[in-house]
């Protein structure tokens, strides 16, 4: 058993003081990673005077490398193959405690929530918007040579319009160095820092407002923005590569307008309608989720920005011709996020052909289709309020933010990228790279008190190795920008908003099928920094204070 093996490793570590042999009266009570600082101490070790380090020079350098090798051995012993694949890509992850038993009403967005789309849609959006730029905005013909690169960008990046910089920012508003691109080329770290006045930090007023749009910086938050970021970078790359002068704001607006035209003119809807088998994924699972909820007496509603004809054809494909009988309320072309804040737009009823009716809406009827409206009238007419409502969407700002913060609904975020990221996290390469990176960081923290010339050389070598490990771990997710959830060590700005605006998050709606309809989700007690000794992060100091990975395998 992995748990038994790990416990044996820990017992040996504690009994031997981390030095491989039985502890004697003269053995050091400290463990590898515990430096000479005050209070550096392993649990299980007697509280005696700290061990004396060598006086300096070559002996001290050898002492540091010995601690390094001891820690390498510990990490190797802690990570047998059984500890990989601990996370389930089909699991639902909780930011906040929520019991489905208390949820009576389920609401859904349509695009990328009820309907999951294949990645094959993105090259179509990219190439069509690219051609619109050439044909209608008179951009250079040479732009047509660019094709969509699905592995270039990730969701959640920020774009500085005036600097033409696409970059990844962490939860504390710092640019992750090595992830700033102008066009398709990386921008040196020194230049990024110089562009922002000698710092990596982006001031709050420049960042993004409530919906991810600041005065000069925009955050790309939805999945449809992936081809937009790719096209923006390709066009900038062409202009820079051909030494063409351009106004950054005009270029940005033209690209976003071209992408918008693909949606507004209905081109994307046409592609999907013409080949639903190609573009719509997991339709049978969507049907299973909705049918199961209705069978357990839950009320359902749909609020989407997409038009009725498109939604109707997609739902017929996934659920069948009677799909509207599953929903108590259906609202199309809702114009989110203003649907949640603007009281002025009334509901309009559509007939069976999708034509507008002139009736004054005094109630929302099952089986009928409504357009626009606003959340305040919706709440008044349905009386669906507070935490008994759970709404699912893919866009953290447009779908979820207002509902959670202003109206007290429960929210679930659909993050398709989660499945791939968890599969990477479950690999042996990632597990070993990250764990050794954490352990090496702990060594650096503890051993930095040694400041003689030889010790500084050792610490510099460790710093170089740590940076190499960080780059390797980042590239496992995306060569340019890494994971959508983390910078090297901090959560990304995207992660910060995900935690703030969603009670639950999952890769797809079908994850609900893995849980009972009365299941209670309990968020893990993730450590604050002062609580870290209670958790596996304490490996950073080499002190064994936490449950072992083998014992934690049953958690998910």
TrEMBL record:
GO terms for molecular function: 5'-nucleotidase activity; metal ion binding. Gene3D superfamilies: HAD superfamily/HAD-like. The active site is at 109 (nucleophile), 111 (proton donor). Binds 1 Mg(2+) ion per subunit. GMP binds at residue 111. CDD domains: HAD_cN-II. Mg(2+) binds at residues 109, 394. Its cofactor is Mg(2+). The keyword Acyltransferase does not apply. Keywords: Hydrolase, Magnesium, Metal-binding. It holds the Pfam family 5_nucleotid. PANTHER family: 5'-NUCLEOTIDASE DOMAIN-CONTAINING, 5'-NUCLEOTIDASE DOMAIN-CONTAINING PROTEIN 2. Belongs to the 5'(3')-deoxyribonucleotidase family. This is 5'-nucleotidase domain containing 2. The gene is NT5DC2.
């Amino acid at each position: 058993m992995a748990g038994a093996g790990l416990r044996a490793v820990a017992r040996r570590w504690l009994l031997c003081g981390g030095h491989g042999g039985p502890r004697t009266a003269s053995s050091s009570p400290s463990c590898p990673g515990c430096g000479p600082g005050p209070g550096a101490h392993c649990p299980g070790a007697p509280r005696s005077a700290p061990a004396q380090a060598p006086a300096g020079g070559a002996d001290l350098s050898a002492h540091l490398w010995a601690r390094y090798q001891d820690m390498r051995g510990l990490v190797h012993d802690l990570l047998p193959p059984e500890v990989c694949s601990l996370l389930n890509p089909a699991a639902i992850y909780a930011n906040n405690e929520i019991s489905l038993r208390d949820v009576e009403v389920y609401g859904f967005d349509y695009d990328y929530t009820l309907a999951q789309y294949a990645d094959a849609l993105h090259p179509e959006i990219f190439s069509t918007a690219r051609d619109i730029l050439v044909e209608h905005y008179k951009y250079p013909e040479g732009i047509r040579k660019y094709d969509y690169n699905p592995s270039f960008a990730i969701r959640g990046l920020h774009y500085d319009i005036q600097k033409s910089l696409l970059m990844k920012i962490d939860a504390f508003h710092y640019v992750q160095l090595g992830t700033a691109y102008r066009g398709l080329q990386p921008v040196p770290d020194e230049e990024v820092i110089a562009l922002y006045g000698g710092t990596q930090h982006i001031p709050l007023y420049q960042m993004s407002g409530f919906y991810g749009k600041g005065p000069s910086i925009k955050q790309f938050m939805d999945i449809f923005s992936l081809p937009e970021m790719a096209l923006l970078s390709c066009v900038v790359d062409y202009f820079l590569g051909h030494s063409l002068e351009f106004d950054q704001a005009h270029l940005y607006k033209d690209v976003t307008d071209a992408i918008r035209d693909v949606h507004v003119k209905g081109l994307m809807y046409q592609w999907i309608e013409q080949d639903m088998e190609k573009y719509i994924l997991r339709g049978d699972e969507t049907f299973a989720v909705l049918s199961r909820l209705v069978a357990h007496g839950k009320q359902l509603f749909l609020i989407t920005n997409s038009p009725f004809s498109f939604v109707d054809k997609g739902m017929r494909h996934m659920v069948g011709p009677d799909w509207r009988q599953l929903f108590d309320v259906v609202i199309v072309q809702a114009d989110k996020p203003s649907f949640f804040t603007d009281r002025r737009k009334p509901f309009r009823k559509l007939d069976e052909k999708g034509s507008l009716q002139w009736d004054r809406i005094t109630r929302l009827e099952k089986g009928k289709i409504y357009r626009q409206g606003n959340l305040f009238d919706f709440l008044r007419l349905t009386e669906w309020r507070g935490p008994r409502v759970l709404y699912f969407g893919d866009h953290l700002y447009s779908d979820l933010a207002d509902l959670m913060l202003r109206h007290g609904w429960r929210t679930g975020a659909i993050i398709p990228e989660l499945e791939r990221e968890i599969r990477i996290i479950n690999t042996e390469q990632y597990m070993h790279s990250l764990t050794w990176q954490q352990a090496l960081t702990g060594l650096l923290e503890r051993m930095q008190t040694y400041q003689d010339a030889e010790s500084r050389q050792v610490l510099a070598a460790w710093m170089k190795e740590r940076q190499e490990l960080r780059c390797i771990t980042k590239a496992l997710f995306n060569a340019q920008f890494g994971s959508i959830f983390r910078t090297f060590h901090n959560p990304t700005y995207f992660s910060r908003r995900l935690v703030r605006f969603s009670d639950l998050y999952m890769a797809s709606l079908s994850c609900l099928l893995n849980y009972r309809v009365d299941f209670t989700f309990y968020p893990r007690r993730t450590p604050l920094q002062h609580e870290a000794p209670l958790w596996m992060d304490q490996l950073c100091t080499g002190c064994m204070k936490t449950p072992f990975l083998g014992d934690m395998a049953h958690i998910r």
